[in-house]
């Protein structure tokens, strides 16, 4: 009887295992453990469809709280040193909501004291935000969740496309930052409607393709898992179509972005 190539390979492996006194030869010879190429292909498809590459499958909220400060500080430094103003300004809009979520994650992990120091240290250095490009993904959250004459008026002004004279100087994120600064335990979050609303949905931020590519390159090379987890859990990033259209009109800009990104990443340790 003519043996197939698979049979020949199997016989050679079995012979080798016998010479080495391998104890589980019977299991190897069991045909039920063998799979055809079709079965392996189906298993591979199922695996790809039921999982996602680079997904974070565990919580790292109990990590050393110092990691939060180190990772956030490095990200801030990276963004502020970007030479392309448009890209830098887009990524600066990520810092305030990221700081708020990282603070709440530290409270969740039981690091209350370290979290307060973390928030105090970094909140003073935050840039002003343009809420017309950065807002909760739900957009129309109930006005009862916000203070009258502040956040409610701000949302109404933004939805109407105008900012009237009664709109306060502080935007939504700065007001939220003030609220979060007065919360010292995770149990207090539910009693603060603005914070509860902030944590009830992902935060929607619009980035150009250039800014997104630079952020991805930084995270892939330098980011800690806890920073990636916070971004994946609490943020929804959309590509700004207007920025994409403008970038198509400027052919030299993508090359400048890539060169700047490569230069910045090479300077990092």
From TrEMBL:
GO molecular function terms noted in the UniProt entry: RNA polymerase II general transcription initiation factor activity
Region (Disordered): 242-269
Pfam families recorded: TFIID_NTD2 (PF04494)
Coiled-coil residue windows: none
Localization in the cell: Nucleus
Keywords: Nucleus
Domain of life: Eukaryota
Nucleus in keyword set: yes
UniProt keyword Nucleus, yes or no: yes
GO biological process entries: transcription initiation at RNA polymerase II promoter
TFIID subunit TAF5 NTD2 domain: residues covered: 63-125, 170-233
GO cellular component, one term: transcription factor TFIID complex
InterPro entries: TFIID_NTD2, TFIID_NTD2_sf
Protein name: Jg22306 protein
């Amino acid at each position: 009887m003519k043996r197939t190539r698979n049979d020949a390979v199997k016989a050679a492996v079995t012979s080798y295992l016998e010479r080495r006194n391998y104890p589980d030869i019977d299991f190897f010879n069991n045909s039920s453990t063998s799979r055809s190429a079709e079965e392996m292909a189906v298993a591979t498809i199922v695996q790809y469809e039921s999982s996602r590459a680079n997904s974070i499958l565990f919580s790292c909220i109990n990590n050393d709280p110092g990691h939060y400060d180190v990772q956030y500080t490095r990200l801030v430094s990276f963004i502020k040193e970007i030479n392309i103003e448009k890209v830098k300004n887009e990524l600066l809009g990520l810092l305030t909501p990221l700081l708020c979520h990282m603070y709440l994650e530290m409270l969740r992990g039981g690091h209350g004291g370290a979290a307060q120091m973390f928030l105090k240290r970094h909140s003073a250095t935050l840039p002003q935000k343009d809420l017309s490009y950065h807002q909760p993904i739900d957009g129309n959250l109930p006005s009862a969740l916000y203070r009258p004459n502040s956040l409610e008026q701000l949302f109404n002004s933004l939805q109407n496309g105008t900012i009237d004279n009664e709109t306060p100087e502080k935007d939504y994120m700065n007001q939220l930052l003030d609220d979060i600064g007065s919360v010292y335990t995770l149990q207090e979050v539910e009693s603060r409607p603005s914070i509860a609303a902030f944590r009830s949905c992902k935060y929607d931020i619009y980035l150009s393709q250039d800014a997104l590519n630079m952020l991805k390159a930084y995270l892939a090379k330098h980011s800690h898992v806890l920073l990636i987890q916070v971004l994946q859990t609490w943020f929804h990033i959309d590509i700004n179509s207007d920025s994409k259209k403008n970038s198509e009109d400027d052919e030299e800009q993508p090359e400048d972005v890539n060169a700047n990104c490569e230069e910045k990443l090479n300077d990092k340790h």
